[in-house]
Amino acid sequence: MSDQIILFDTTLRDGEQALSASLSVKEKVQIALALERMGIDIIEAGFPVSSPGDFDSVRQIAATIKNSRVCALSRAVQGDIDAAAQALNSAEQFRIHTFISTSDIHVQSKLKRDFGQVLEMATGAIRYARQFTDDVEFSCEDAGRTPIDNLCRMVEQAIKAGARTVNIPDTVGYTTPSEFGGIITNLFERVPNIDQAVISVHCHDDLGLSVANSIAALEAGARQVEGTINGIGERAGNAALEEIIMILKTRRDRFDFQCRAEPKEIYRTSQTISALCNMPIQSNKAIVGANAFSHSSGIHQDGVLKSQNTYEIMTPESIGLVRNTLNLTSRSGRHVIKHRMAELGYREGDFDLDVLYQRFLELADKKGQVFDYDMEALLFFENQRDDQ
Ligand code: KIV
Ligand code: ZN
């Protein structure tokens, strides 16, 4: 089994669904270009039948992107598939993604059908989409809550009908890692033709487990993972792709997975998407939050100055940041103050470290974080005091 992991980004489809204001076509193309530059394998550009604006943006992205495969979503109905095929037809490489719900609650309460009818709709849609391309992905919506016998039946029939990728979404973020990994293991054990398709996973974050569930699924044999940058998406969002990429890169000791993404593009892409989507990133967000590479405790700061890997499991440079930050607070030691003054261009003879450190502590106790301009002001006032 290949250990190459296919990265499927749905920031422009599942992510965009969650925004309070929609993105313009130009902004969507800008995001697609950033994802292409980052080395994302498949960019889900939108849901063309949903609105003329979405159709147009998928069309423009399909015409612009050359090094990633462009994908469009469709329900399991011919009109949606026609719209997806039409919007994608100028792309160099494209995929049609069609889906239908498979859980009892969705089949009965939302679709008001029985499972046999849903199975027919799914296979009919896959066969129809195959007229336009060999690359058809089928998703079993709410797979996380689908009885395993039904899920096995659906996956087997979807592959027979021509799906080259079968996606197993945890649509409502309900499962736990061992449970979700178990679903994937079960599929590999019970679906006879499973080796004829790539098994994909698409996890939502309602219980904060989307990334953990995705990794458990990869360990169980899934080879495509879907997510969004910064984890934006319906409700609590989707699995954050930047976290998955950095898990794959940082824990090579644990898994032998490869992916095409260039991690150095992560920070810039995350900032671009946050700004265009008007979605601020929480400061303690893994990988891309403002505090992800900043150290506040004096003990940690001292450790990092001696050797970065004492408190950093990956370097800031690896995600495209220039460097880490050491926050100056009342927990910072003299070593850090001396280091910061040197960075600001001062030499040892320019100040008395004992006095400056005392003044710094008094200020830090009053205001919390002390900034470079505060240090310069403290030094200025100390020098003035000496002159009097
Ligand atoms: O969460 C989900 O099930 C989806 C499907 C359309 C893949 O977004
Ligand atoms: Zn989703």
From TrEMBL:
Catalyzes the condensation of the acetyl group of acetyl-CoA with 3-methyl-2-oxobutanoate (2-ketoisovalerate) to form 3-carboxy-3-hydroxy-4-methylpentanoate (2-isopropylmalate). Homodimer. The keyword Transmembrane helix does not apply. Its cofactor is Mn(2+). It catalyses: 3-methyl-2-oxobutanoate + acetyl-CoA + H2O = (2S)-2-isopropylmalate + CoA + H(+). Residues 5-267 form the Pyruvate carboxyltransferase domain. Its EC number is 2.3.3.13. Keywords: Amino-acid biosynthesis, Branched-chain amino acid biosynthesis, Cytoplasm, Leucine biosynthesis, Manganese, Metal-binding, Transferase. This is 2-isopropylmalate synthase. Mn(2+) binds at D14, H202, H204, N238. It comes from Ferrimonas gelatinilytica. It comes from the Bacteria. Pathway: Amino-acid biosynthesis; L-leucine biosynthesis; L-leucine from 3-methyl-2-oxobutanoate: step 1/4. Belongs to the alpha-IPM synthase/homocitrate synthase family. LeuA type 1 subfamily.
